[in-house]
Amino acid sequence: VQSPALGVGPSYRPEEEKPTATVSKSVPQENVHVLPQTPQLIALLTMIRDKDTQRADFIFYSNRIIRLLVEEGLNHLPVVAHTVTSPVGKDYVGVKFEGKICGVSIMRAGESMEQGLRECCRSVRIGKILIQRNEETSKPKLFYEKLPPDIHNRWVLLLDPMLATGGSAIMAVEVLKGKGVPEEHILFLNLIASPEGIENFAKKVPKVRVITAFVDQGLNEQNYIVPGLGDFGDRYFTL
Length: 239
Ligand code: URA
Known about the structure:
With about 240 residues, this protein is of the alpha/beta class. The chain has one domain (about 5-239): Rossmann fold, CATH 3.40.50.2020. Helix content is about 30%, strand content about 30%. The protein has 6 helices and 14 strands. It has helices at about 40-50, 55-75, 115-120, 165-180, 195-205, 230-239, and strands at about 5, 20, 30-35, 80-85, 90-95, 100-105, 125-135, 140-145, 155-160, 160-165, 185-195, 210-215, 220, 225. Strands 3, 6, 7, 8, 9, 10, 11 and 12 form an 8-stranded mixed sheet that branches. The chain has a two-stranded antiparallel ribbon with strand order 1-2. Strands 4-5 form a two-stranded antiparallel ribbon. Strand 11, helix 5 (about 195-205) and strand 12 form a beta-alpha-beta unit. It is globular, with a radius of gyration of 19 Å. The chain starts with a strand and ends with a helix. Bound molecules: uracil. Uracil (URA) binds near residues 224 and 225.
């Protein structure tokens, strides 16, 4: 199945004036939320998918997408009614966030998303999980975890930019569940997902809410997402 193409731009602009771009596949799982395919987002994704984009730009534009994901993710946390009085002596009926949160990054690529979370949530606690694929069995294996001791009382924003087969993300969720975090208190923030990864993930941990910027075409023989952007960790941290 081809990815859909769409005229990119605001609805008031005539269709013939909008360039056509490949937009995210839509997915049937109701716990999966794909960011609106705005001209901004598509332009940012175009930058980071380009093999000729240099590291400084890759970091800059990835960070902007990460910020959009974090802002959208926070919309899924519970709020309670909260009324304040403004300096002119009038009440404003609003809301405030309820409950504690923490971030958990899946190392190493997920660590790229920590700063974006810190920018939105001052002094947020951040844990880490290292999972690596066993070369022989190609099964994911847990190597390291460092998590806030009271994580069972927190909403968890799980961070990993690329959802390929879903193996690592599913294992990370199992680790969190083992620490007493209810599945429905986990939000998984992700830049690019494969349809296979989304399907696996939603089948194994259906109550985790997924916020992704884009569901791509598929996977290649090496389990890279296509068209994807290559190895996210390499491009963000090393090359
Ligand atoms: N991880 C990456 O960095 N890129 C992919 O395409 C898949 C997994």
